[in-house]
Amino acid sequence: MKLEALFIRNDIILGKSMNLMKHYHSAKAELAKVIFPTSGQVKQAYISVVIVVSVIAAFLALVDLLMSSVMSAILG
Asked: What are 12-45's pLDDT values in tens digits?
């Protein structure tokens, strides 16, 4: 947490008056520094997540099938 945010919280907790415009401008300045992903990057990340989740799901399904077969063989 930034030191500036800590002071804002202390001001709110202690009931001190805040300069609303100062905080608005600093929030706007911080938001201007944010780099938002392009639609291509979002699409690539989405596809990557779907592939990884599918691979992990298939692996867990195989492990479950194997373990249930072993348990069925042991318990009869």
From this structure: 555 555 688 888 899 999 999 999 999 999 999 9
Q: Are 18 and 12 in contact (CB under 8 A)?
A: yes
The CA distances from residue 31 to 9, 25, 43, in Å, are 19, 10, 23
Segments in 15-76 forming alpha helices (H): 20-32, 39-75
**Cα angle value 16/27/24 (rounded, 5°):** 55
Q: Output the six-digit token pair for 22.
A: 């100062």
What is the Rg, in whole angstroms, of the alpha carbon atoms belonging to the chain? 26
Torsions phi, psi for 6 (to 5 deg): -65, -40
The helix or strand, by DSSP H or E, that contains position 11, with its residue range, turns out to be helix 3-14
Model confidence, pTM: 0.57
Position 6 scores a pLDDT of 52
- The residue ranges of every structural domain in the chain are 1-34, 36-76
